[in-house]
């Protein structure tokens, strides 16, 4: 890829700390389905310009590939800046960037090392936040309010904060956890299907029929699933079938009740104590509708009676914009953390709060 000449210092129309106040902010969401980038006015996040690359950022033995992320992200950012620049005179000023990435907490050392210098040189950005995708999911759902967010799709993770520190539950992958997530539900459904095939207790003829409709004859399931490198996604593809069967099948309904219990347990483990906390659900799993949501509402009411269930305001990409806008305006109140929410440079004139200069990562 050919890059524009790097500027040693922010030039006209670029980041830094402009006395004119916050300009535009960039949010990035990197996950298994690709890379999404959004640009919005720091004062109005409701009308962002967005663009998408369907190619996921590579992850190797050294973690998330910072070079591959930049190779995709920089042209996308410049395209968005050009779009808003066409609206009127002057060059759009990029005030802050927030990058949310799946695996940031454990695989993000390369991003933390390389992105601050690269984005300063290429885009003139001096205010940057690097966040785990659970943090951007939290900010998208609840903004900067205390509470808990469950993000569930193929996997499942719960993240909560009292605005002093972060608390995490699950998100350990389909072999060690992600209990109640799509892969967990799909695997439990296939277990019930194979029990029915064998004639063992706990089997479901309805799930067996749906499994064979989706994957082919039951005897061939191991050969079709075990060698796949995308096993979690393949298992999660069966979760909507479990929800379909749950309308009339007690075994499938029981699987969703168990999933709801696991999800509520994770939320209860991270939600701040005391009245006034909020719990939000975000992610594709909850599009399965009432077969899952009805037992989940009951579990949340039982396990978290002090917390109010609210609708998520937005998704993780919106959450990245929320974090970037707060950073641009010296208003970041979410707790900084070396791995979950890393702010490598200290914005001036920050007055208190969890991300005050004395607390920011150096």
Structure description:
The chain is an alpha/beta fold and 362 residues long. 40% of the residues lie in helices and 20% in strands. It contains 12 helices and 13 strands. It has helices at 66-85, 104-107, 109-123, 133-142, 182-198, 205-215, 221-225, 231-236, 239-246, 250-270, 290-303, 316-328; strands spanning 24-31, 34-41, 44-53, 59-60, 63-64, 94-101, 128-132, 147-152, 156-161, 166-170, 278-282, 308-311, 341-342. A 6-stranded mixed sheet has the order 3-2-1-6-7-13, sandwiched between helices. A 5-stranded mixed sheet has the order 10-9-8-11-12, with helices on both faces. β11, α11 and β12 form a beta-alpha-beta unit. α10 packs across α11 (290-303). The longest helix is centred in the last third of the chain and has 21 residues, at 250-270. It is globular.
Helix content: 25-40%
Low-confidence stretches: 1-21, 347-353, 356-362
Q: Whole-number radius of gyration?
A: 22 Å
Query: Helix segment count?
Result: 12
Instruction: Tell me the fraction of residues in β-strands, as a range.
Output: 15-25%
Strand numbers in spatial order across the main sheet: 3-2-1-6-7-13
Largest sheet properties: 6 strands, mixed
H-E string: EEEEEHEHHEHEEEHHHHHHEHEHE
Number of strands: 13
Arithmetic mean of pLDDT? 86
Described by the principal axes of the CA atoms, the overall outline is globular
User: What is the end-to-end distance?
Assistant: 31 Å
Q: Give me the secondary-structure category.
A: alpha/beta
List keywords for this structure.
single chain, 362 residues, 5-stranded mixed β-sheet, 12 helices, 13 strands, 40% helix, disordered C terminus
